[in-house]
Amino acid sequence: MAIVDISGLSFTYSGTDQPAIRDIDIRVESGEFILLVGPSGCGKSTLCRCLNGLIPHFHTGEMKGRVLVMGKDTATTPTFILSQDVGFVFQNPENQLFALSVENDVAFALENLGYPRDEIRRRVDSALRTVDIESLRNKSPFELSGGQQQRVAIASILAMKPSLMIFDEPTSFLDPLSAQSLIRSISEIQDTTGMAVILVEHRLDLAARHATRIVVMERGRVVEDGAPAEVLARDETEVFGVGIPKIVKLAKTLDKNLRIFNQLPLTVEEASDRIKGVLV
Fold this sequence. Notes:
Elements: E1 4-13, E2 21-28, E3 33-37, H1 44-51, H2 54-57, E4 61-69, E5 72-73, H3 79-82, E6 86-89, H4 102-112, H5 117-130, H6 146-158, E7 164-168, H7 176-193, E8 196-200, H8 204-207, E9 213-218, E10 221-226, H9 228-233, H10 235-239, H11 246-258, H12 268-279
Parallel strand pairs: 3-8, 3-9, 6-7, 7-8
Antiparallel strand pairs: 1-2, 1-4, 4-5, 9-10
């Protein structure tokens, strides 16, 4: 059974005439790391909100089609039940943090769902350890840096042990070094837990190397879906407003005349190794 099965999905917000997303068909399997990309306003966030029930339960409008998460129809399943299958990390972590300590923030959802105290302790300890913030457990979340706050938000979701984690541009407020560290941590969490990940991210130079699949959206539709190297190799991808990593652009230019790469590299290291192999 797929973790996510979307068929014929369209959604139009109340008060608007045009659908924010239209005719979406996507399946997400366990262990996939999907990079969801496209220009601002193309429908990425709307699609993500359909997966955890925020649409249609909190954002009103006309929804067509069907969204199943772990076999549950999101249109009829309460969001507190969906939250145990789908974790959602927003752009601004402060929107998810409110307790007086990191530990209390991570434990909050488990306490509200009535988990036993010993189980809460085990899950909180494990989540803090996974994102490497055990030393911050007694700190106020609002004393932390942006990168640390994002890790607290991630830990609070990890404690729920969801089957799918969605990250909606989590590096928007971070400097490049912090962004790189966070995306690497997300990849390590995915590798360790085996859960599926959907990452909405515009920094493809940092994220593409970790993805197993790239989904491109444009004007509310999915226009490309495939392996990262294949999607980024297509000239149409850049036309759709996707920021192609510089190393991919360089490799495509070199390949026009030299035919060096069997598959376009996603990192400088991959490109360097291939060029060295040709020169030796």
